[in-house]
Design goal:
The protein is an alpha+beta fold. It has helices at about 1-40, 50-60, 75-90, 115-135, 180-185, 195-210, 265-285; strands at about 70-75, 100-105, 115, 140-150, 155-165, 190, 220-230, 260-265, 290-300, 310-325. The chain has a 3-stranded antiparallel sheet with strand order 2-5-4, with helices on both faces. It has a 3-stranded antiparallel sheet with strand order 7-10-9, with helices on both faces.
Length: about 325
């Protein structure tokens, strides 16, 4: 009996040790799995050859089997559809005189924040058809798509924002002499929460888009850092006597004045300031300025419908990325 008791104790000890080892291995396996998940997080900055990557992704996406279960999250799907649209249609470094902003719409199937590769392929072809038809409907000279941006809501609503460049009869030479202010601004003043926002947004993209070399061949943009904000209380003018506002901010701001009209000469200052902020910031992070827009932020809390004095400021929101050259002829006959 004693011998049997001893054997039973030894067996129980071996079993306990085995359970402990298996448990440790499971925890270790779980840790390794989590590590793999983190390491596999998509990062476009790690792509060495953007052209090959996008072409390879497109071919794999379009040839994927119907029963494939691969999915992308919303952010990854947006990036790939945006980058493919610019790869297929983007022409970011041509000479032009003017720009326009347009929006197209589509739909995609979103399930629990993810999108299947088959659905992405279907929407990719649909987006291409929309863009191609839109391009040929534009009655403009020397028209090109400088930037295409695709956004997807959690409900599957697809918004396609397009910046189109084109030529006019006359050609401007921006900032070439002291008359540039008269060339850009034709009104004596601009409401801060109205035409100042749209005018500064338009001119910001117009001038940034002309900072390219058409002799480099066709290029397109890939956004790698989006919606970078520049707020009035973070950027100050030095020396501050150059600044037209009392806050010495490089971005427009006002105190106790809602929709305050910005004089033309101050609009020239803010345009130059916004361009400078974005360009210097982009140079510091080794990225190109892709596009940007100006927003008016109501600081009074009253809102547009209020009758009391209000005040606010501008915010500059900028997308940064990389310009990729395409040496092969464009597949579309423009």
């Amino acid at each position: 009996m004693k011998k049997n008791s001893v054997l039973a104790i030894i067996a129980m000890a071996i079993l306990a040790t085995t359970v402990t080892v298996v448990s440790c291995k499971k925890e270790e396996s779980k840790s390794v799995s989590n590590k793999d998940t983190i390491e596999k997080t998509f990062d476009p900055m790690q792509i060495e050859d953007m052209n090959n990557y996008l072409e390879g992704f497109k071919q794999r996406m379009l040839s994927i089997s119907k029963d494939n279960n691969e999915v992308l999250n919303l952010e990854e799907a947006e990036w790939h559809l945006t980058s493919l649209a610019n790869y297929d249609f983007g022409y970011a470094n041509v000479d032009f005189d003017d720009i326009r902003f347009d929006t197209l719409f589509d739909q995609i199937n979103v399930i629990d924040g993810t999108i299947g590769m088959n659905d992405i392929a279907t929407t990719y072809e649909s987006i291409n058809n929309h863009i191609d038809k839109f391009f040929h409907s534009l009655m403009l000279d020397n028209k090109h798509f400088r930037l295409i941006n695709v956004e997807i809501s959690e409900r599957g609503e697809v918004t396609i924002s397009i910046i189109t460049t084109f030529s006019n009869a006359g050609k401007f030479h921006y900032f070439s002499d002291s008359t540039f202010c008269d060339q850009y601004f034709t009104q004596p003043s601009y409401p801060a929460n109205g035409s100042a926002v749209s005018t500064l947004t338009n001119l910001f993209n117009l001038i940034i888009g002309k900072n390219t070399d058409p002799d480099e061949g066709r290029t397109y943009y890939v956004i790698t850092r989006n919606n970078v904000p520049f707020y009035f209380d973070q950027w100050y003018e030095d020396p501050d006597e150059y600044c037209p506002n009392s806050e010495h901010s490089r971005l427009y701001c006002s105190i106790n004045a809602y929709n305050w009209p910005i004089p033309k000469y101050q609009m020239c200052y803010y345009l130059d300031s916004y361009l400078g902020l974005a360009t210097v910031f982009g140079n510091n992070i080794s990225l190109s300025v892709v596009d940007g827009h100006v927003e008016f932020h109501d600081a009074s809390g009253v809102g547009d419908g209020g009758l009391l004095p209000q005040w606010g400021n501008h915010a500059l929101i900028v997308d940064f990325g990389i310009a990729v050259s395409v040496h092969d002829p464009h597949i579309f006959d423009y």
